[in-house]
Amino acid sequence: MTKSRIAAVDVGNDSIKAIFGELEYELNIPNIVARDTEDRPVIGIEELDTKEPMDGIHIKVHSPALKENNLIYRVGNLAAKSNNAAELDPGSSKSEEDQTLIMLFAALALDAVKGEFPRTKNVIDANYTLGTGLPLREVKEGKDAGYRSKLIGSVHQVEFLVTPKYQGLKVNIKFTEVKVYPEGFAAFINLVMDNNLKIINKDLIDKRILIQDIGGLSTDIAVIKNRNVDDDKAQGFNLGVSESLEAIREEIRTKHGVELDSRRDVVEIITRKNNRNHIMVKGSRTSVHDITDRILLDLAKKEYRLLRNVWSKNSQTEICYFVGGGSHVLKDYLKTLNNNLDGYNIEFFEDDKESIWMMANAYYKLITDFVRRTEKQKADPVKS
Length: 384
Known about the structure:
Elements: E1 5-11, E2 15-20, E3 25-30, E4 33-36, H1 45-50, E5 57-62, E6 71-75, H2 77-80, H3 98-112, E7 119-120, E8 123-134, H4 136-140, H5 143-151, E9 156-160, E10 170-182, H6 183-192, H7 202-205, E11 209-214, E12 219-225, E13 228-229, E14 235-237, H8 242-256, H9 263-271, E15 278-281, E16 284-287, H10 289-313, E17 319-323, H11 325-340, E18 346-347, H12 352-356, H13 358-379
Parallel strand pairs: 1-8, 8-10, 11-17, 17-18
Antiparallel strand pairs: 1-2, 2-3, 4-6, 5-6, 5-9, 7-8, 9-10, 11-12, 12-13, 12-14, 15-16
């Protein structure tokens, strides 16, 4: 049997973040797909060899887990340029969307073609032990079990079509094990433990804390006390940044006639270091501060209201950590609101990468620990 490779994958609403093996490979792909009906034209085969695979992910996906099977997709940067690009809609469940699986399989296939899995001609047989997660709301509804069962026990195939360097390769993906963690719990693990699950934040371990994870489509607030997530108190909400990013994108198009490819382009405009909240209009740098401030402040107020409500029900809370891509976008607005209003003890991660990669890092810690314990048990079943 093929040796199983560790994969820790966070299918975020903005992008998918994945860590593989012994931390030797990581991927970050915009979570955008576009259906394709035929092989996309490529000008000259040389172009295919010189481009990067990440800029031309063009695949056919076969999996019994999909509602619509055997379809061709453009993924990530390539999909963003399509007229029919699809990003996850507000109100949708991550565990029930084909797009979540397409992104997951694409990431695994991009790792598998680089790895040391057995290869027969153009077919690679890849085996993974997967650590991933779902929003708290979906785990509380029991959707994690259904999601896991879709993945385990089946073969999922990704065929690279007109993809630079990988054209013609097929990857058969199997899962030895799949662990689906609630996102709030994962954030706590990442805050207090290192890659070997040794406690690195002793000050935090016995505190009563909240973790507000703002994603594209949902917000999870985990309530931590006695080193555990309080499942009864923890809450998930159908509120995320995607709708606001879409509104900004639409208003920029209407007011300035500028078409942005995806929500990710909006995030880039809002968060970049230089010329923040500016776009180019007919070659002139133009401020869109009025649009971004109005829409994002409105969302920040809603997020702050959620914090206030959960904190009031957990009055002995000592600190709230804001995590996730949405917190990165709303950080300045939430800080301003908090300074002017309640003055809660809140904390953000100033390192943008740390906040954005927090879930993938947590899944990596959890799944490697699971593998370590399983191997130890096999080696010494009596002691275990």
